Each structure stands twice: as C-alpha cells, then as structure tokens.
Amino acid sequence: MRKFVFLFILLVGCSAQIPKWFGQSKLPGYSATNYYTGVGEGNTFADAQSDAQAAIASQLRVTIESTVETFVQELETDDRATYVEMFQKTTKSAVSETIIGIEIVKTKKVGKRYYVFAVLNKTRFLVGLEAELDQLLEQVSKLVRNARNSIKEGKIFVALENYAEAQEYVVQFYTKKAFYDALSPGPFFMIETITLSDMVSEIRLILSGLNIEVISGDSQSSKAGTLLRDPIVFEVSFIEAGTEKKIPIPNMPITIKYEDGTVIERGSTNQEGQLETYVTALPITSKHGKVYARPNLVHLPPVYKKYLKKAEGSARYSTLEVTPIAFTLTIRDEMGHRLPKVEDKIARSIEKLGHIISDNAEVALDGSVSVIETKGVEGSGGLQHLVTSELSLIMVLKSTGDKVASFMANGKGLSQKSEKEAIEASYRKLNIKKKDLAEMLSRAEDELQRVFEQKSAEYLKKGKTLYAQGNLREALQPLALVTHGDAQVDEATKLIKTIRAELNKIAEDRLRREREEK
Question: How far, in Å, CA of 422 to CA of 123, rounded?
Fold first, then answer.
C-alpha cells in the first residue's frame, strides 16, 4: 500500500511539472486573434525552439497554400502544375523568411526536457509585409510597363527580359499577398492590377511572333572539313499577330548548332536583328548538312520554352571531295543588259561540276551574247523568224586581269510573232555543255592553282593579323577564303577552331554575368 501511494505521488509530481501552457497551447495575453502561436519541446533549447517555429510555419503554409491554389486554378493555361510548383517554392521561401520574426515568450526546463511557447505578432508582421508588398508591386508594375513600351518601340528582346524578370516578382507578390489577405481585415489594396494570367498571355503572344530566317549563305558547297566560303546570315524578327510587318530584334541571344546538336556558335544579333556565322562543312548525314539557329533565352522560365518551337531558322550545305572554285558570273547582251536566265543556266552547269557562284570570288566568268544571224524561213504557218545567237564566255583572273580560258556556245530560236521573241528563244536554246565547261576549267587549272595558293597566303596573313589585334569575328572572313595549299589550309583550320572556342567562351561568360546580375 505504501509503495502504491509513493508511485502515485511521483506521477502526479512529474505531470505537474509539465507547463500547463504547453499542454493547452495557450498563454494569457497572446490570443489567436492577434498572434500565431506554437509550442515546442526537445532535449535542447534549440530543438524546442525549432519545434515551435515549425508549428507556426505549418499554420502559415496552410493559410497560403489554400489561397494560392485558388489563384492558380484561375489561370487559363495547360501548365498549372508548373505554376503550382513555382508557388510552392516561393511559399517555402516566404515561410522560412517569416520564421525570423517568431519570438519565444515563455520557456521552462523540466528535468532534461525544454519547453517553449512561440508567437508571431500578426499586426507587426502585417506592417512589414505591407511595405514589402508595396515594393514588389512597384517593381512588377515598372517591369511590365517597360516591357509594353519596349514592344511599341520594337525592342522585343528587352520586352522579353522585362517580362521574365517580372514573372519572378509577381509569383513572390501573390504568395505574400495570400499571407496578407489571410491575416488582414481587408485585402491588400492594388492601384493597378497585374495578374500572372495577363503576363502569361503577353509572353506567349511575343514568343509566338518570333521569326528566324536565313537571308544569305544558304545552300553552299565546300570541301568537307573546311569553312563555307560565305557566312550564313540569320535574321531574327517579330511579326505581330494579324500583320505581316517584321520588326528586327537587336541583341537577341542566338545559339547555332549542327543537326546533331553540336554547338557551332553562341552570339547576339546586331542592330538590324542579324547574326552571321561561318560554318565548317561537316558531312553530318551523307554529303549534306544542316545548321539551326534558335533563341538562347536563359532567363525565360522553362514553362515557355515550348512556345519557341517555331522560332527556328535553318540553312543547308553540301560537302565535296575537292575544293570548289568560286566564280562571279556576268552575262550581257549586245546592249549591255544582263541576261539572268542565261546566267542561271550556266550557274547550274558550273554547280554540277562541283564549283560555286559567289560575289566574293577571285575568278570572273564574263560573257556576252551576240546575234550572229537573222533570217526569215517559210513554215506551216507562214513566214517565221529564225535567229542564231552566240555566247562568248571568258575566264578572267581579277587580280591581274589575265584571260586564262574561254568557251563558245550557239543557240537557235524560232518565232512566228517577232524577231525579238526569236532572239529570246535563241538565248534559251544556247547549247551549254557541261563537258565543254569542264574542258575550259582544265585548261586553266595550273594558272588557277598558282593564283589560289597566292591569294590563300594573303588571306591567311590577314586573318592572323586580325586575330592578333583581337578582332576575332572579323578574322574569320579572310580565313574562310584560305582554300589552297595544304599547309596554309591546315593552319587556317586550326586558327578558326581557336577563334570559335574564344568567341563561345566570351558569349558564355557574358550570359553567366547576366544570370549573376539577375
């Protein structure tokens, strides 16, 4: 009997030592109306404090998440799950920040256990939160205004940068507004309402209007492993919905890749919205290759990346077993007028031989077409006009003006209507044989080889000088023209690889600095 009484007294004594306020989670002077409250216990004071803070944090999290869930459901988008995740991260961060304001107002140690009572003053918390919301709203409003004004001014990339930054702030704003509205007698007052839904729609509208196209340098040919002779120039523009007006986008970061994903270059468009790149002709698939230009918007939230699928430009090229010869081509009639259709016909034959037509060439193909005979002939429909024309094509070295080879071809044209139509028909009928063109090139081979090696040496020297001066992109242009002399070609190829690596590093460093500044 005495043992029983002793144990009873011992148990009653221990239970009496556990704070009453801990068991009830209540403390006079700290009502639920004015305070968030939480109790905690642990083997150390720090453990008990963390336990109490976690209790208050849990209440805050429930308060925010219910409000945020309603807010996200109102978004007219298929990406709600992504936005829920964004808000969850911001909620976690906001709750963590709030823990700093939690106070421990009561503590007690019972044996080896610590007990604490923690509070968060709602009034004091609201005052600080209101000031923070004012700052966030001002920042969001400023960024959105800048974005909308930038669109009007044609500064599309600047608009995207502002919208991307504004979205980060607007998620923070509405997360903390959910806090405020749950605690305050009335919701946070907003002079200007800027919703996430509005921003999502505006960003999508911009992205859907981005356009990238090749304006020069497409469909070139080069010996495998060497640079294409001319740069590929991409143009980035914005086409507003319902219009065909193109607004060039300057300073747009662009990544250029081969079709297997290998990065060729990272750069930004100039003030005309253009970016030129020198591409090495690598046979990715068979004897052909393709390069793509896509926006490199590192600050754009991942949820928007799918809207960039149409913002892509591409260019094709072909690889050859030998170094092609580049020619300028000009064909004129007796009056000095150019004949584009005759030029196209000759150009196709030249390209079938593995060579190219380029405005940037050391060898010119200059031709003239003359009418050498006109006469009338009787036909089934009466008198007809028969015209014989002659093409004289001369290969000229631009550096010296020397004529190194020539080629002749005739064509006959017949017309019942007029002599003029017969002349035009004779141009179309010019008998331009690939074999004859090949023989002309063969006759000039030695002289061409000598000239090309000499010019390649000059281009190599110029490229090295520009590189030494730090003009990396400018150095690529002459280096792309180093086409002859094995040692010269190897040296140019190695230097091009070095320059490309340095250009990419510069672009990556710039993007990294921008991310750090953000």
Answer: 97
**Cβ proximity of 394 and 367 under 8 Å:** yes
Q: Enter the tokens of residue 23.
A: 């068991």
C-alpha–C-alpha distance, residues 345 and 347, integer Å: 5
Tell me the backbone φ, ψ of residue 243, rounded to 5 degrees: -130, 170
Rounded CA-CA distance 5/11 in Å is 10
Q: Which residues of 462-488 are buried (b: 16+ CB within 10 A; e: fewer)?
A: bbbebbeeeeebebbbbbbbbbbbeeb
Tokens of residue 200, six digits? 């999502």
Report residue 84's pLDDT band, with 50, 70 and 90 as the boundaries. Answer: low
Residue type, 43: N
> Quick one: 159 exposed, middle or buried, by C-beta within 10 A (0-12, 13-18, 19+)?
buried
User: What are the CB-based long-range contacts (under 8 Å, 24+) for 453-461?
Assistant: 453/484, 453/485, 453/488, 455/362, 455/399, 455/481, 455/484, 456/481, 456/482, 456/483, 456/484, 456/485, 456/488, 456/489, 456/492, 457/485, 457/488, 459/492, 460/488, 460/491, 460/492
The residue among 267 and 339 whose pLDDT is bigger is 339
Residue count of the chain, please give it.
Answer: 518
Sign of CA dihedral 173, 178, 183, 186: positive
DSSP string over 90-152: HHHHHHHHHGGG-EEEEEEEETTEEEEEEEEEHHHHHHHHHHHHHHHHHHHHHHHHHHHHHHH
Cα–Cα distance, 478 to 492 (Å, whole number):
9
The answer to whether 238 and 218 have CB atoms below 8 angstroms apart is no
CB half-sphere exposure, 102, CA atoms < 13 A: 28
Phi, psi values for residue 128, rounded to 5°: -65, -40
**CA–CA distance, 17 with 497 (Å, rounded to integer):** 78
pLDDT digits (tens, 9 = 90+) for 107-119: 999 988 999 999 9
pLDDT in tens, 232-266: 999 999 887 777 788 899 888 899 999 989 999 88
Long-range contacts of residues 288-291, Cβ cutoff 8 Å, at least 24 apart: 288/316, 288/317, 288/318, 288/319, 289/258, 289/259, 289/316, 289/317, 289/318, 289/319, 290/258, 290/259, 290/314, 290/315, 290/316, 290/317, 291/232, 291/256, 291/257, 291/258, 291/259, 291/264, 291/315, 291/317
Q: What are phi and psi of 155, to 5 degrees?
A: -90, 75
- The DSSP element (H or E) to which 379 belongs, if any, is strand 363-379
* Separation between Cα atoms, residue 343 and residue 432, nearest integer Å: 11
Name the residue type at position 234.
F
User: What number of other Cβ atoms are within 10 A of residue 199's Cβ?
Assistant: 20
